[in-house]
Amino acid sequence: MTFRLYPNKQIDQSLRYHRKLHKDLYNAAVYNRFTQYQKFKHSVSYMEQQNSLPAFKEVWTEYREINSQALQATLKRVDFSFERWFKGLGKRPRFKSIRHYSGWTYPAKTGYSVESDGENGYLNLSKIGRIQMRGKAKYWGTPTTCTIVYRNGKWYASITVEVLDQALKPKILPIGAAGIDLGCKSALSITNGESHKQIDAPKFLRNAEHQIKKASKEKRRKQAPNRKKKIKASRRWKKAQAKVSKLTSKVRNQRQNWVHQVAAEIVSSNSFVASEKLEVKNMTGKAKKSKRKKQKAGLNKSILDVGFGMLRSTIKYKIEQIGGVFIEVPTKQVKPSQTCPKCGHQDKKTLDIRVHECTVCGYVQDRDIAAAEVMLYWAKGTLPGFGTSLVDGDVTSSTSRTRKKAGSMKQLGQMKRQKSESTGAVVETRSSTK
Ligand SMILES: [Zn+2]
To answer: Is the separation of the CB atoms in 205 and 307 below 8 Å?
Structure first.
């Protein structure tokens, strides 16, 4: 849980001073590791560095007033970046300038205390002072760790808490069951079989893409810094940069708020949710395109797409936390957008057809709501005519797996039986022991 901090001038100075000391310690530890290796071929371990902290404080007396566990946490950061480098996961650790040094961590319950019930309050940092903080936590408990972060000219405290299990679990599970279609039309459709609801993505989220693009374009027109050519950033570039990062963090926050709000609403009345299966990206084949193209595709992933992905995983997480059931519907087999929820008849719909109109039973419904209904009924095992039409559909499909399986009539018969017996749903429940 992150709170924004509002330090007064004196405390702000003190926070900056502490950040600088942690940065210097970080750089000293990096330097120590490199020189020890260069001179003596000796790989310095985390424990060695931790054990030398008292001696270090003898010389650098200003470190005496800093919480020693926080100092250890900074050494851990160094250790972590070396580990990553050794494993080939990260770049060679570098000395950090103060601009690229975010802050420090209190890894245990010492060095700070929190006066809050989860909404706003005060943070006490030893040797620094009492700081007003604003923010609201979803869950609250005993603070366990606290990380101080300086970003875009603002201070934040990221606090983790121990939450009692009972606090998360409602005494009585909500009885509702819902099917959810996360739409291509920037809205999500929820149904319980009787009533339906569609929620639009907030307008800001829909416009954010455009705004950020515009701001980045402005930035590209200004003189960017270049370390190799020793070109400093122009004042205008800095200004444009600040604008871009302000916008992106605003969008990030708004997206997060929206996701949590929508997910919480769904989980407050349902403990059984069916939605499309999370797609795992195919890492072979298509990924072989040029790296540049791939990166570009990643960057261009729409803010809304990311939001819908987050929404789906947040709903899943919250449902599991209360001990409910989240069912992932294999859309390739079930084809929610092409199946009639009332009679199970399948008819291909192109993307521009927004209304489901069954040619067999005459059921008329919004396309996305119909898809949500199909997923709900399928998960409950009440989708009519499901068995045969599904297997027929599957055999004629061209996925290599089915072709392999559908070798002989005997195999085909076996498959048919399996399919109609169990629907192959991925049911994931997890006891919430966190
Ligand atoms: Zn029908």
So the answer is: yes
CA–centroid distance, residue 357 to ligand 1 (Å):
8
Residue 1: per-residue pLDDT: 84
Report whether 123 contacts 130 (CB < 8 A).
Answer: yes
Which residue in 349, 347, 381, 341 sits closest to 196, CA to CA? 341
Positions in the chain short of pLDDT 70: 164-171, 184-186, 278-301, 386-434
Report the pLDDT value the prediction gives residue 423, as an integer from 0 to 100: 41
Q: What is the pLDDT of residue 166?
A: 54
Give the Å distance between the CA of 389 and the centre of ligand 1. 13
List the shell of residues around ion ligand 1, using CB closer than 5 Å: 340, 342-343, 345, 358, 360-361, 363
User: Measured on CA atoms in the order 165, 171, 175, 178, is the torsion positive or negative?
Assistant: negative
235-269 and 203-221 are packed helices; what angle lies between their axes, rounded to 10 degrees?
160
User: For residues 85 and 92, is the Cβ–Cβ distance under 8 A?
Assistant: yes
The Cα 267–Cα 139 span in angstroms is 15
- Write the single-letter amino acid at 47: M
Residue 398 Cα to ligand 1 midpoint, Å, equals: 25
Contact criterion met (CB below 8 Å) for 180 and 274: yes
Q: How far is the CA of 391 from the centre of ligand 1 (A)?
A: 18
**How far is the centre of ligand 1, averaged over its atoms, from the C-alpha of 362 (Å)?**
6
H-run or E-run covering 205: helix 203-221
The CA-CA-CA angle for residues 368, 372, 373, to 5°, reads 115
Backbone dihedral angles phi then psi of residue 158, each to the nearest 5 degrees: -105, 110
Structure letter (DSSP) for residue 61: G
Q: What is the pLDDT of residue 308?
A: 82
**The token pair that represents 220 in the structure block:** 């590209």
pLDDT at residue number 34: 95
- d(C-alpha 322, C-alpha 138), whole Å: 14
